[in-house]
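Onboarding guide, step 5: your first structure request.
Type a short instruction followed by the sequence, for example:

Predict the 3D structure of this protein.
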Amino acid sequence: MQETDILIIGGGVTGTAIARELSRYDVDVILVEKEADVASETSKANSGIIHAGYNADPEKLKGRLNVRGNELFDQVAKELNVPFKRIGSLVVAEKKEEIKILKELKKKGEENGLSNLEIVQGERLDELEPNINQDIIAALYAPTAGIICPYELTIAQAENAAKNGVEVLLETEVLDIKVKTDYKLVKTNQGKIKTGYVINAAGVYADKIAQMVGIDEFEITPRRGEYYLFDKEKGSEVNHVIFQVPTKVSKGILVTPTVDGNLLIGPNAEVIDKKDDVATTSNGLNEVINGAQKTLSDLSLRGVITEFAGLRAAEVESGDFIIEASKQVEDFINVAGIQSPGLSCAPAIGEFVVGLLEKEGLELKDKKYFDPYRQEPIRFRELTHQERAELIAEDDRYGQVICRCETVTEGEIVDAIHRPITAKTLGAIKRRTRAGMGRCQGGFCSPRVAEIISRELEIPMTEITKEGSGFEILCEPAKQSLQAEVVDYE
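The system replies with structure tokens like these:
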């Protein structure tokens, strides 16, 4: 049985942000994630937008934490060596009556502390976005909005937390929690963990975790959003994150460049029953492309390289985040209902939860040797010819290109496998290196990536998976299977 001061349940962007913030202090922290990698659920399938903070209600946590989180991202991105671009956002209006909504958003943003919001029209709008639909007559411009890779941020936070002493346990699912007099006994599929404090950051499963200790005060409703991702040749179609006038359940179909240079459109919003249903649908994808064409009238499906869906953890009743110490169960903190703008709020949520722990009586002393910096991974595709030559001279594995679409080398894949959070699935390698994210979507490189994982971790190919147990890519060795067929034929 393991023991710790604090147990964090959930390895998404919120859980890892809390883990990194706690790693600043002299306390024992364990983070458990039921999947084979961090960022395996909501945090790998969202828009990657750092919102400026004009849409969230200033009277709610969403509003306050959005503004604070946005302010923190320049420093966070610098420390974690994560690409982040403040490209600004536009909320576009086609009808005169929608300009009233833009003015309301502007006022709400100013109440949240934003001073640089601007309603643009005419030549100013054309200058910002020359390719948008000519039926658009005005837009709310927020220059502090940005774009980031949500799963790279999550991975970076987890790596930095691990470097500073947090133990990250993957493929560790919480099955039950027993509340004792002065501790919690958490049963997982990998054994038991004794802990003083529990932080429930389990995303769409946060209500199920809370129910394990008798808390039945909220329900998380999965809200599915579908997306199209286009090739990088389409990434320059727009210069900013472009939203449509928001509704009660969605900010509309957005059109945005990604931080890696692709074009992304989506999501729609559909309430579903299953907490693991990330299937794409023809109706949903039609809604996405039709909605995006209101922003880019000439946009077609040419250049699409993949479509995908993600789930948002919506708590409908409050319409806000639930971040609070339970009044029913001592030293149990819920961090639930973290939907948009949850990614934007993540660093601020980390700070907020640390404050709650102090109020609950946890003594926090600064760690003497805390290092906020994450070692930057080598991105071979971004290096100059001279830098590439020097790198290959040191290690010839960087001269072996495994993923041609994204120019990812064997050296980068080996590095990803041996970083603080081991990458042992095709999906984990993909999220760290972009091997498999190009035009062919892994058709060329996946077998080679699997071979490298097998070699480096000294495990058979039959144990290599796409995303953990149940996603094996081979049932048996291919050559052995072929040989068996030949024998049977004879």
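Each response can be followed by summary notes, for example: The chain is about 30% helix and 20% strand.
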